[in-house]
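ZP: hey, is the nicotinamide-adenine-dinucleotide complex queued? I don't see it on the tracker
AM: it wasn't, my bad. submitting now with these inputs:
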Amino acid sequence: MRLENKVAIITGAGTGIGKKTALLFSSEGASIVVTDVNQESGNQTVKEIQDQCGQAIFVPHDVTKEEAWMHVVEEAKEAFGKIDVLFNNAGIYIIKPMIEISLDEWNKLMAINVTGVFLGMKHVMPVMAEQKKGSVINASSIAGIIGAPGHVLYGASKGAVRTMTKDAAMEYAGQRVRVNSIHPGYIKTGMATYASEVTGKSEEQLDATYPLGRMGDPEEVAKTVLFLASDESSFTTGAEFVIDGGATVQ
Ligand SMILES: NC(=O)c1ccc[n+]([C@@H]2O[C@H](COP(=O)([O-])OP(=O)(O)OC[C@H]3O[C@@H](n4cnc5c(N)ncnc54)[C@H](O)[C@@H]3O)[C@@H](O)[C@H]2O)c1
């Protein structure tokens, strides 16, 4: 059991990468605080964890709201007594030419993808610091590393997550709290379906843009997050983990 006796908060765990990570973490012995703005899907993830004899609670949560983060931290401590892992996973995706992006769209995406990560680190890392141990994993993207048409907004948010991760890692290294970012290429969730619709490229065409010949599966991201959450990565902080089938090497 690679996460035995650990307690993990996973945001946006109702679907996609967050859900797969929650199920994997649970199978490795962690107790999970599942959060999502979508109550139905969040409760479904908890049910599936309990069906595999794991421990989990659902906390309704909009990551853009500071009070909601304070509530999540209280619920986690009340249910499980501590917080070992935070996976800042919740995020949204917009592909649009710069001149078509409204200010409302800009502010909404930035609030979820950037402010949500900031608030999560702000409220959870002090708890970890008191414990003198903890691991935070922030969901960035290859869009936080390389450029692409239609990605000014999303890329800005994921670039921010990339550098915020390194800053937070330095701020909390003395308290032995680690912070790392993950950078997936297209992973087969609703986001890849959206990308296919917006770009007019079929799934096969998107697959072909990756040197390994395919997009990734959520499980493949979850396994990297598991490594970063576990003590196996105990000397790793401020690092960026690319999971992209070789896309950024081309
Ligand atoms: N799928 C990909 O191709 C891909 C690639 C690179 C990075 N990522 C990143 O990985 C993360 C997960 O993506 P996914 O593909 O699983 O997406 P997804 O859409 O399947 O899941 C995102 C989850 O976040 C939740 N969410 C949205 N807004 C929220 C809010 N304000 N508060 C709380 N929860 C909220 C949604 O309800 C949903 O359950 C995102 O940060 C995304 O940007 C995804």
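AM: back. DSSP finds eight helices and seven strands in the chain.
ZP: great, adding it to the tracker
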